[in-house]
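Q: Hi! First time doing this. I have a protein sequence and I read that you can turn it into a structure. Is that right? Here it is:
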Amino acid sequence: MRKWGARLLKDNTPIQEYKIKGRTVFVKREDLCTEDPMPKLAKLRGAYELLVKLKSQRVKKVGHFDTSISRAGQGIAFIARELGMEFFLCYPKKKELSDQHRIAQELGAIPIEIKPNVTPVCYAVAKREVESKGGVMIPFGVSCQESIKAVCREAAHVDNYLFTGTVVLCVGSATIISGILLHKPEAKIIGISAGANNKKQYQNIRKLLLPIIPGNVRLLPNTIPYTTADDFECPFPASPYYDLKAFRWLVEHIDQLEDPILFYNIGQL
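A: Yes, that's right. Below is the predicted 3D structure, encoded as structure tokens:
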């Protein structure tokens, strides 16, 4: 069962070096963690582990809520199909179906359109719908122990030296940052929000990992709206809705960052 996972979920993604304003920036290319038809999204490792666990518990149906720009549902649709599980993909109703949700349906996802509202309300409605059909709802943002442990295992491939300076990454549900902290709780990490407020992100780290968050972790609010794509120039593939916004911050504040600088490109392409 892990055969396809080993083929399509890549461990030990490369570290590449780029010169930015005369400084060296090391980039963890987690956008290279998957192959088509899965999107380039690091947290799909955790989604795979979670679905395998649920399948072992004889769960046959699962559901997931996607935001309007998320590609997680596309990846989970493929995983569910390979594991022989029924998958309900919930997303805010809109006039035109997004490409990623169309692909998810082609992969076997059963769509459930939710009336647009704030994310917590949409998720609660989606959860009721999925459970009414006998399914188990995946935590929002795939924020679960399986995800942070999978991120932790991947972070262990990174040279320890690169965690002695500054780590910068985009933060959504705070799952990836929690996995990095599980591996290196002493790492100095700056997380740039892609949309969620920092208070909620801190709460999620406490829920997932640490009752008291160390002072070496700093989360900053987004300066570009969640659904607005950034067009900042970048020397490597970066999602305009996620990673690119954090990379812009890194470039604009690079003089304030301690070497070595590690940018964790979490993917969403």
